[in-house]
Amino acid sequence: MNLIQFLTSEAAAATDAVSNATTTVGQSASSGFMSILMSVLPFALIILVFYFLMIRPQRKQQKEQEAMRNSIDVGDQVTTIGGIVGVVRQVKDDGDIYVIETGANNDRMTIRKWAIQSKDTISE
Hints:
Blueprint lengths: L2 H68 L6 E4 L4 E8 L4 E6 L4 E6 L3 E5 L4
Antiparallel strand pairs: 1-2, 1-5, 2-3, 3-4
């Protein structure tokens, strides 16, 4: 074997070794990414499920409650979170406080906006 054949065979062997090492590193990097993805994916799915089953409906309900409370005017019948039913007679402090009239002898109570549970229709 002469020197040129020897160097050619050594160069080919070195090229194969570098190619094999690059392939191994690429495979280990992709397998490392997949293992991280598979360990994080269940937690991401749980968070996504909680969002769509709990957080989103609650926010929607809060927006509906706030819209109902903002639409209350004088003369509307309301029910408080304590179960008191009355008719709104006065709105104070930029709509934050309501004076309601309850009972047969027309007692008046002052309540906050957040204490109103529902706006009822008056049936006569």
